[in-house]
Amino acid sequence: LRTQLEFKERAELLETSKIAQKIFKISLEKKSNLCVAVDVDTADKLLDIAEKVAPHICILKTHIDAINGVTDSTINDLQLLAKQYNFLIMEDRKMADIGNTVKLQYKKLVDWADLVTVHSVSGGMMLKGIQEVINENTDHCRGVFIVAELSCNGNLISEQYIKETVKIAEEYKDIVAGLVCQSHDVISSPSLLQLTPGVNIKNTNDNLGQQYQSPSDIILTKGADIAVVGRGIYQDDNPAEAAKVYKESLWNTYLERVSN
Ligand code: BMP
């Protein structure tokens, strides 16, 4: 079973993509399966939080289009932090257009974002567009997470949509790191990573449909390999300490899961 295998074994599987291997490797080196979503509104805050959580994360997730004052130098500083502290940068753009448009959009991200998120709604050709860009940029290791389920109540994703999304992920395995999803039974292949948002120790929801679970629920019940935490960390009075607490709780639950 995917959820019972250790990251080390999963990284060594033949069908595991280079980008997924890289995530497994960083995760093991840092003993962290924590991805922090830094959804702040200014570039200064982005760099401030990034530096504070950096030692505790395997992936830093951005919505760069929601942040004011981002310049080339912001991106450069973020990349320096990523190098210094050994984490990957994921731009959560949730691309969803026709292949050609996604290809044009992705060309602006491939230089700096190790990972991007995509919706599968347009089908496989969108992944082909991204694959072409990745294959032209051979000096970087790049990949995508495909959204298969959403954490908010009232979303329109159906069982059929989830099944077709998994098929697309299998078809483009060379560039797919994994799926963004909420249930343990979406991904069966141990070579794909399950990234799961909606984690918060103090709250169970927000006022806009977000639904939260605890770190152990997300890893044990929902089957997450990597958990995404946003407000639980960047809105805390001490984001560095909060990141450490989430990291330890998530990693210990992962160890518990694979030891069974
Ligand atoms: P928070 O922990 O503050 O609720 O942030 C969750 C983050 O994960 C946000 O950046 C959001 O865009 C993202 N996300 C989510 O909450 N649910 C999903 O299903 C997919 C997401 O990418």
Automatic annotation (TrEMBL):
<comment type="similarity">
    <text>In the N-terminal section; belongs to the purine/pyrimidine phosphoribosyltransferase family.</text>
</comment>
<dbReference type="GO" id="GO:0004588">
    <property type="term" value="F:orotate phosphoribosyltransferase activity"/>
</dbReference>
<keyword id="KW-0210">Decarboxylase</keyword>
<comment type="similarity">
    <text>In the C-terminal section; belongs to the OMP decarboxylase family.</text>
</comment>
<feature type="binding site">
    <location>
        <position position="61"/>
    </location>
    <ligand>
        <name>substrate</name>
    </ligand>
</feature>
<protein>
    <recommendedName>
        <fullName>Uridine 5'-monophosphate synthase</fullName>
        <ecNumber>2.4.2.10</ecNumber>
        <ecNumber>4.1.1.23</ecNumber>
    </recommendedName>
</protein>
<feature type="binding site">
    <location>
        <position position="230"/>
    </location>
    <ligand>
        <name>substrate</name>
    </ligand>
</feature>
<keyword id="KW-0456">Lyase</keyword>
<keyword id="KW-0328">Glycosyltransferase</keyword>
<keyword id="KW-0665">Pyrimidine biosynthesis</keyword>
<feature type="binding site">
    <location>
        <position position="231"/>
    </location>
    <ligand>
        <name>substrate</name>
    </ligand>
</feature>
<dbReference type="GO" id="GO:0004590">
    <property type="term" value="F:orotidine-5'-phosphate decarboxylase activity"/>
</dbReference>
<comment type="pathway">
    <text>Pyrimidine metabolism; UMP biosynthesis via de novo pathway; UMP from orotate: step 2/2.</text>
</comment>
<feature type="binding site">
    <location>
        <position position="210"/>
    </location>
    <ligand>
        <name>substrate</name>
    </ligand>
</feature>
<feature type="binding site">
    <location>
        <position position="151"/>
    </location>
    <ligand>
        <name>substrate</name>
    </ligand>
</feature>
<dbReference type="GO" id="GO:0044205">
    <property type="term" value="P:'de novo' UMP biosynthetic process"/>
</dbReference>
<feature type="active site" description="For OMPdecase activity">
    <location>
        <position position="92"/>
    </location>
</feature>
<feature type="active site" description="For OMPdecase activity">
    <location>
        <position position="97"/>
    </location>
</feature>
<feature type="binding site">
    <location>
        <position position="39"/>
    </location>
    <ligand>
        <name>substrate</name>
    </ligand>
</feature>
<feature type="domain" description="Orotidine 5'-phosphate decarboxylase">
    <location>
        <begin position="33"/>
        <end position="246"/>
    </location>
</feature>
<comment type="pathway">
    <text>Pyrimidine metabolism; UMP biosynthesis via de novo pathway; UMP from orotate: step 1/2.</text>
</comment>
<dbReference type="GO" id="GO:0006207">
    <property type="term" value="P:'de novo' pyrimidine nucleobase biosynthetic process"/>
</dbReference>
<keyword id="KW-0511">Multifunctional enzyme</keyword>
<keyword id="KW-0808">Transferase</keyword>
<feature type="active site" description="For OMPdecase activity">
    <location>
        <position position="94"/>
    </location>
</feature>
